Amino acid sequence: MSVTSPAGPSAATIDAIKEKARRLAILSMMSTTAAGSGHPTSCMSAAELMAGTFFYAMKIDPKNPNGNDSDRFVMSKGHAAPILYAALAEAGLFPASRVMTLREFSSELEGHPTPRIPGVDAATGSLGQGLSVAAGLAIGARLDKSPTRVYVLLGDGEMAEGQIWEAAAFAGYYKLDNLTVIADVNALGQSQPTMYQHDMEVYRKKFEAEGFATEVIDGHDVAAVLAALDRAKAAKGRPQAIVARTVKGHGFSQVAGKENWHGKPFPKEMLAQAIQERGGPIDVPADPGRSYERKSLPKPPDFPAPAAPDYDPGKAVATREAYGFALKRLGAVNPHIVALSGDVKNSTFSEIFQNAYPDHFYQGYIAEQNLVSLAVGLAARGKVPFADTFACFLSRAYDNARMAAISRSNINLCGSHCGVSIGEDGPSQMALEDLAMFRAIHGSAVLYPSDAVSTERLTEAMARRAGVNYMRTSRPKTAILYSKDEKFPIPGFKVVRQSPQDKVTVIGAGVTLHEALKAADELKAQGTGVRVVDLYCVKPIDGNALAEQIKATGGRLVTVEDHWPEGGIGEAVLGALSQAGSPPAKYRMLAVRDMPHSGKPDELVEAFGISARHIAAAVREIA
Amino acid sequence: MSVTSPAGPSAATIDAIKEKARRLAILSMMSTTAAGSGHPTSCMSAAELMAGTFFYAMKIDPKNPNGNDSDRFVMSKGHAAPILYAALAEAGLFPASRVMTLREFSSELEGHPTPRIPGVDAATGSLGQGLSVAAGLAIGARLDKSPTRVYVLLGDGEMAEGQIWEAAAFAGYYKLDNLTVIADVNALGQSQPTMYQHDMEVYRKKFEAEGFATEVIDGHDVAAVLAALDRAKAAKGRPQAIVARTVKGHGFSQVAGKENWHGKPFPKEMLAQAIQERGGPIDVPADPGRSYERKSLPKPPDFPAPAAPDYDPGKAVATREAYGFALKRLGAVNPHIVALSGDVKNSTFSEIFQNAYPDHFYQGYIAEQNLVSLAVGLAARGKVPFADTFACFLSRAYDNARMAAISRSNINLCGSHCGVSIGEDGPSQMALEDLAMFRAIHGSAVLYPSDAVSTERLTEAMARRAGVNYMRTSRPKTAILYSKDEKFPIPGFKVVRQSPQDKVTVIGAGVTLHEALKAADELKAQGTGVRVVDLYCVKPIDGNALAEQIKATGGRLVTVEDHWPEGGIGEAVLGALSQAGSPPAKYRMLAVRDMPHSGKPDELVEAFGISARHIAAAVREIA
Question: Per-residue pLDDT for B1 more than 50?
C-alpha cells in the first residue's frame, strides 16, 4: 500500500487511505467500548494521519516490524494506543480481532503501548517522551547508514512538555532529516482545552524556530496529509513537522470537538451511532486468537572481552575518570556503543570515548530528559547507549528511566559527582537520592564501584546486561583496590578486609569504602577486627551470601553511604538480609542525614557523619 | 540607586552602573580565586546585566529583601552565585568581605545559592528551574495585587532545558507582565560551545513564539542594558525577554570568549592581571565578619480549623476525590492556598477547589517540572501551594522536588492513581516508585491515607507543615474507616484491628490497607488474630511506637504495599524498627515485584501479590 508517486497520490490511493482511516477510527471505537475504558476521541482525531503514515508513507516489514530495515513509528501520544494497534493490525502484524482484546488482563495489547507488541519500540503513555525516542531511532539509522525513516505522532496537549522541545532542538541541530514529526492538534487536553487550541501558527513558529521544515495542514484532508508526507520525505537536511489541525472525536457528531470526552469509551448505543456516521460497520472476526506478544525482546549484542584495565596500583584515580577509559576500551571491541552526555563530558570523562570514537558520541547539551529517552531509541535499533551527567541531574530524567524499564529497554546511565564528597559546589550538585531512585526502577542494576579497576569491569558488565543499568561514580581520586584479573559478578560484593576474629562487618561503597578501610586499619591496630565489604553492586543483592558475612561477625553490622538514609545501601542491605531470614543482631546505619552545604570534601564527609572516625565510633558501639 | 527616568538614564547613571559592573566582576573573580573553585567567567559575562538589574531596575529593601514589597530576583544560572552575592553585598544586604567567604565550610555563601542567604528565594544550581520559580513569584505578586516585579537571569546553556520553555509558555499564556527574563548568551557551555552560540535570532524567535516582548542587545553596553530594562518595565500585557549577547569571561583578555575556562578560578597572578584589566583593585575589608544567614525561613502561615469532613460512613469515596473536597474546605479558612494541576484536575479532583476558588487555581497544563518549581516560587511569597498530577508523573519533576528541599521550600504535592490498583491504563500510569522517591527528599513527609476522612485531615496537616509534603492518593473508591473526630498526627499510624491474641501485625496503606482488613477478617473467622496497622504516614515513622505493635505480635510482621519492594513501606518499616533496636523476628514483605500490565484493578491486585489472599497466606506462613 506504500505508494509514493512524483505526481502525487492518485484518486484511488486517496480513497484507499480514506477507507483505512475509516477502519482505524472504527476499530478504535469498538475496542475501547469493548474494554470499557480507553481514549477513542484521541484516536479519532488521528485517523487520517495514522492511515497516511502507515499505509502510504511507511515501509514496514510485517514479519520484522522492529527490524532495522523497517521504517519506525513512535506513538508519542501513548493513550492513542487503540489506533496504533488498529494500524498494526491493518498492516498485517496481527488480526483485527486481536485489537478487540485491548486492555484485557491476558492481552499483550495494553492500555498504553509497550514493546511486548510487535511494531512498538518503546513504551509510551507518559507524554512528551516519544520525540526523543524517535530522535534516538533516527540517529541509530544514520549510524547504520540506513535509508529507513522514523515517524512520530505527537498530541498537542503533550507539546506543553518541555522535553518535546529538547528533542526538537536536538533533531534540528543534528539535522535529522530521516525524522518526520506529525502533530495531531485537536485543541482539547484532558481536563480542558489546550493552551493554544487551534492557533496553528504558534506550533508552526515553534517548529520552525527549531529548524524543522514545517507545514500546517487540515489533518482530516487525506490528500493534504499524503502530499505533506511526500514533501516530508523529500526534505533534505532538516527534520520535518507536519502540524495537523484536527478535531478530537472527529467523525462522530455527538463528540466531535466537544469537551469532557477525553478518555471516555462510547456506550454500546452510542458506538452503533458512531459507526453508522463513520460509514457503517467493518468486519472483525469474533475469535480473539492467540497472543502476538513478541517472543524475544532485544538484548545487548555480545562482544569480545575488552583490553584489561592497566592502572598503576600506586596512583589514585577517580572512578569517574575510569568510566571514560572503560568506555574507550569497550569502544574498541563493541561497535554498537554510542555515548551521550549532558554537556558534562569533561566532568564525567565520556570525552575520553569521544576523542577515540567521535562518530559514536553525541552531545546532548543540558537536557537530561531528552538524553535518557534518546538512549531508549538508540537501544531499540540495537545500539548500546551510555548516557552520562551528574548523578543528581539524572533526577531530571526519572520518568524517562521509569518508562525505559516499562520499555524493557537496554540502556546504561552513568551519574558522576555523587554525595557530599564532591565538596564546594554544594547540595544542588550532590546526588544523595540516586541509589534510592535507581533501585526503584524495575529490573535495574545499581552499580557503585570503589576503584578504577572495578569501574572498568562493571562498565563492561553494563554493556552486556539487559535492562536499565545505573553506575554511580565519584569525584575524588581514590586508591586502586583490585588487580586487573579480579572479577565482579552481578550480584556480588568484595570482602576487602577480613580476619578470623572480626567483630563487626562494615559495608560501604565508593568514598565510604575507603573511609571504612581507614577505620578498619585504625581499629585493627587497637585490637578490634573489622570485616570490610565493598558493595559494588547495590542492586541486585545476594542476601544469602551477604548474610554469611554478617553471621561471621555475630550479626553485628554497620553500613555507611554517601547518600540519604532512605532507600540506599542501608535499606537495601536490611531488605536483603531480612529476605534471607538473617536480619542483623546489632546494626548502625551511617548516612547523610542533614542538608549539606559547601566545604572541602574531607570536611563534609566528617561533618555529615560518614567518615572513618564515625565508622570507627559506630563499630565500637556495637562490637 | 534605582532611577528610572522617562528621558532614559543620564550619563552619570550609566557611569555609576558601569562602575557597579566593574565591582561585581572583580568581586566574583576575587572570591572564586580565594575559594579555589567556582565559575568566574560565567559571572563576568553577566556583570553589566546584574548591575543594571540590581542598581537601576529593581527596588530592593535591604532590610527585608525577601519581603513581598521587594522586587525579586532569581539567579537561574545558579553557578553564577558569586556575582549574585556580590550584587547583594553592593545592595547593602551584607558586607563585601562576606563574599570572600564563598564556598567555605562555615559560610552561608555556598557554591550555589540557597535561601540561607538574604535576598535568595529558592536554591538554584540545577539549571533550567529558575524561570518557573520566577513565574511562581510573579503569580504570587499578581494574587497579592503587588506592583513588585520579578527578574530572572538565565544562561544560554540552560536554555537547552525543556523546563525553560514550559515556564516561558506558562508566563506568556498567563501574560505575566511583571516578569522580566534576562538571558546571558555567552555562547559557551560547560564542555563546549552551546548549540546556537551567538545566533541571537534563534533565541529571539523562541521567546517571541511564547508571547514575550523580546529584544536582543549587547549585554556589555550599559546604556543598552538600562534602556532595555526601562522598556521591559513599560511593557504591558506580556512578559519580557532581554536577550543579551555576552562574552564568557568578558573583561579579561586571557579568558574572554575562550573555551575551557568554565568553572575555573583564576590563579593569583592571573587574578591580579584580570583586576588590572578591569580597571584596578577595589577595596574589600579583610575581616569576613559574622554570618548573615537568614534567621528564620518562611513557614506556612497558621489558619483556623477547617470544617470537619462530613462523609456518609456507608458510602465508599476515593481518596483522590477526598483530596479535592479537602482543598475546598481549606480554601474557606486559608486564603493563601493556591492549587495547580498538570491538566488532570478532573482525575485528581483539584477541580473541586477550582470551582470554589477559581482565582486561586492555575492550570499548569502537561508540564510537571514547571508545575513543581512554580510551587516553590509561590511558597517564597507566602502562598501555600498544592500541586497535583498522577503520582507517576511526579517522577518527571523529581529534580524539582529535590531542589525544593534544598530551597527549604514549603510545597505540597499530591500524586493520584498510585499502584497497580489503577487498572486498565497499565504501567505507564501506575506509580510504583513514588514512596521511594519522596522518602528520599530531605525533610519530606510522605502521606498515604486509606480513607476520605484521613485524606482530609492529612491535607490540612500538609498545609500546616513546613517542607516538601507528598500525598499519595488512589483511584478506586474505598470505605470510610474513621470518624470525623479522629486525629492523624505526623508521625503516626492507626491500629485498625487488634485483639489480645494477635499473632501477626500487618501493615498496609491505601488499597492494601483494605485488603489487609479483608484478610484479617477472614483469618479471624479461622481463629487467627491479626493486628492491622494503617501506615497513613510513611515518613516520618516513629519506630519505637511501631515496634511496640510488632512486639505485641511476637515480632511477626507482614508489610503490604501497592509499590515496588525498593524504598517503600517495607524498607521504611524495616529501617525504623532497626533504628528502634527492634527488628522483626519473622517478616514477609508483600509488594509488586513483576512489571504489571493492563487488567481490572482486582485482577491486578491479585496477580501482583498484594491482595487479601496473599496477605492471609503470608500471615499463615509466619503465624
Answer: no
Average pLDDT over residues A270-282: 98
Grouping H, G, I as helix, E, B as strand and the rest as coil, residue B180 is strand
Give the residue from A197, A373, A395 with the most B CB atoms within 10 Å of its CB, the best one to mutate: A395
Nearest-angstrom CA–CA distance, B489 and A547? 37
ipTM above 0.95, yes or no: yes
Across the interface, whether the CB atoms of A365 and B107 are under 8 A apart is answered: no
Q: What are the pLDDT digits (tens) for B537-581? A: 999 999 999 999 999 999 999 999 999 999 999 999 999 999 999
Locate B327 and state its grid cell.
Answer: 482543598
Please state the length of chain B.
623
Which of B347, B403, B345 is CA-nearest to residue B374? Answer: B403
Q: Is A533 in a helix, a strand, or coil?
A: strand
Task: Return the C-alpha cell found at B250.
Answer: 568578558
| SS3 category, B501 | coil
- pLDDT tops 80 at residue A3: no
Closest chain B residue by Cα to residue A173: B195
CB atoms within 10 A of CB B249: 27
Per DSSP bridges, beta strands A502-508 and A529-534 are parallel
Cα Rg of chain A (Å, integer): 27
Query: Which are the catalytic amino acids of B?
Result: 368
The pLDDT of residue B418 is 96
Predicted confidence (pLDDT) per residue in B174-213, tens digit: 999 999 999 999 999 998 999 999 999 999 999 999 999 9
Are A182 and A131 contacting, i.e. CB atoms less than 8 angstroms apart?
no
Sheet holding A502-508, edge to edge: A494-497, A529-534, A502-508, A556-560, A586-590
Query: How does pLDDT run across A460-482, given as a tens digit for each residue?
Result: 999 999 999 999 999 999 999 99
Strands A72-75 and A150-155: parallel
Strands A213-218 and A317-318 turn out to be: unpaired
Which residues of chain B are within 8 Å of residue A103 when distances are taken between CB atoms?
424, 426, 598-599
* Interchain pair B160, A173: CB under 8 A: no
Q: Find the CB nearest B365 among A125, A189, A539.
A: A189
Distances (CA, A) of A451 to A64, A479, A512, A614, B332: 43, 6, 12, 22, 58
**Identity of the amino acid at A444:** S
Q: Residues B572, B575, B578, B583: is their CA dihedral positive or negative?
A: positive
pTM of the complete model: 0.98
Strand ranges for A280-425 from DSSP E: 317-318, 337-341, 361-363, 384-390, 411-416
Q: Do A396 and B369 touch (CB under 8 A)?
A: yes
Residues 6+ apart with CB under 8 A from A217: A224, A225, A228, A242, A243, A244, A245
The residue count of chain A comes to 623
Residue A153 DSSP one-character state: E
pLDDT at A4 over 80: no
Where residue B200 falls (left for φ over 0; alpha for ψ -120 to 50; beta otherwise) is: alpha
Q: Is A486 annotated as catalytic?
A: no
CB B200 within 8 A of CB B228: no
Kindly report the nearest CA distance between residue A383 and chain B, in angstroms. 24
- Residue range B347-370, pLDDT digits in tens: 999 999 999 999 999 999 999 999
| DSSP type of residue B431 | B
pLDDT of residue A7: 73
Neighbours of B524 (CB within 10 A): 15
Burial B124-153 (b: 16+ CB within 10 A, else e): bbbbbbbbbbbbbbbbbbbbeebebbbbbb
Beta carbons of A141 and A114 less than 8 angstroms apart: no
Asked whether B556 and B529 are in contact (CB, 8 A), the reply is no
| pLDDT higher than threshold 60 for residue B475 | yes
